[in-house]
């Protein structure tokens, strides 16, 4: 008879016969943390006693309970040996629980792992593929350097197994071995290359992961992949898959220039294949790498442009994105010509994207103002109905700033309008220019060399406006442009005043309230106040460009990073154009020391009244929002502030309907430049300026210079100030820092010190970027700002 005490029997019955599911339900039924701890403590005590009694039939169930307790965060070290006993068992269910417990309850720092090496070796060579898979999985998770050296030869042998399941597991296990013991890399190079030709997708993916690990750690492996890339047959899908994975591997490890060029050339060959899937994959990859090696991608420019003309819309859009990133100052004329030619025959659903991209490229890389105007007019002639409002607005602003070319532009628009086919944008720009510069059109002022001579009378100019007004297909916005142009022409062409009155009177009973109001007010100016109409209707001053080019970028489909569309060429404006929109407002706590404040514009625009015109038209001076409101009813983009109309989105509302953007102060040398941060690879400098009349506001121009020989990507600058300051960050000119300090990145920062004169300026900086694929974080607090800020 067995001598078993009642207490031992009670423990054995409770631990061995209560199921795993019942234990989970018991723990989950606890209503407090203390009750849960009590239940788990009791279960752990019973498990300890059960382990001492060595009940083999229920060992796997007890280890499963132990793993659940471990996942709840309670100590379970007393059950580690039970896992090793389960691994030594014969049956698969026990081994499965044992290996799972080994990976969950132990790590590579445990000395008890030395006891597992022999069991792993036996299970790796087991005839049951699932037992072999368990052993490889465990080795890949908790392998130590000693275990890697002992079992590397067995894993290498399994890489050549006939079983795809085992090859996949062995490849992932080899990744861990290579990381632990780099000396074993050479023994895995040849098996890894053979895996790239495997037909099983799981094996192929695992093999690529192993290849990436090998290439990151060994130059010898890189040379082997060069051979694979050049010798692989690319006429079959298997060859395409191998070549594509080689390309992905080369790009992922940021390889040397020669290998990168080889990878891009492989993608270039893919573009010549008739299979749309292969071409789309190639285009998608080239879009990602074009910023890394633009010159290598430029060699395939002709093939990429042909892809824009493909019948597949997905190929068209991807190729267009790639062309957009390939254009520079040297090839802008050639590529723009090809894109405009294709615009004539492209599908209507594709023309909207194509026109937006062409307009953005012309703005960004225009070699001269005259070329810019020629291309924009040609674009409006070819696809005027697809030109976005932001593009039209920016063109009008640039024309207003190009005083020497205004006559040329209005004459070119007049010639182009002779073939007008209802293009809305062309009509709007044409009537605006005729209204502003009609005298230059008739008098042939500022004619350029090579310009075709033409005779234009005052009535011819008025006829253009009349043609647009009487076209039943034009929108009310364009009709408002035309009415404003007629008012301007009444001052420039006195002989046509009666004809203009007749045209204006035709809209005095228009069912569109805005057109009716303009018609009556404009006729009042011409009829009753002719003595002041000349000064009232003089030419518009140069318009501000702030915010207009950023709206154009949005129309071009530039979404997140804003680095691809740089500032407009200086040839487009007599002054520096800032095309960056203001940074999005946000509030965060940075480093628990300083916090961002809600961003407010520290530069308040002045407000003045246009009393003469307001009294003239019976308006209230208190509602005037801008210093140029003296022209409030002369432009179709401005509406009375008390109501909403679709006409308030015309090109001039940047300057007349809304408060003007403050003029950016020049960064004068009053305050010395300081070095805010300098490390071995990065230098940050600040230049300062004070806008006139706002001593509490400081404009900072931050310059970021990469001092290393490596390219920095994903550059993000963040700053924080105390609560008595207001901070405004504009987007940086780029998020890529070229190496060797060749081209610093700049960013404008505005700080408004509410306690100016009482507390000095202080700022906490946080900078992140990627160097050689690694994330780098730089933090510093700047206290040494110059006095007077």
UniProtKB/TrEMBL annotation:
Subcellular locations according to the entry: Cytoplasmic vesicle membrane; Golgi apparatus
Residue span, GAE domain: 669-786
PROSITE patterns to which the protein is assigned, alphabetical: GAE (PS50180)
The keyword Transport is annotated on this UniProt entry: yes
Keyword Transport found: yes
Matching Pfam families: Adaptin_N, Alpha_adaptinC2
Primary location group: membrane
SUPFAM superfamilies linked: ARM repeat, Clathrin adaptor appendage domain
Keyword terms, alphabetized: Cytoplasmic vesicle, Golgi apparatus, Membrane, Protein transport, Transport
Family under the similarity heading: Belongs to the adaptor complexes large subunit family.
Protein name, UniProt field: AP-1 complex subunit gamma
Source organism of the structure: Sphagnum jensenii
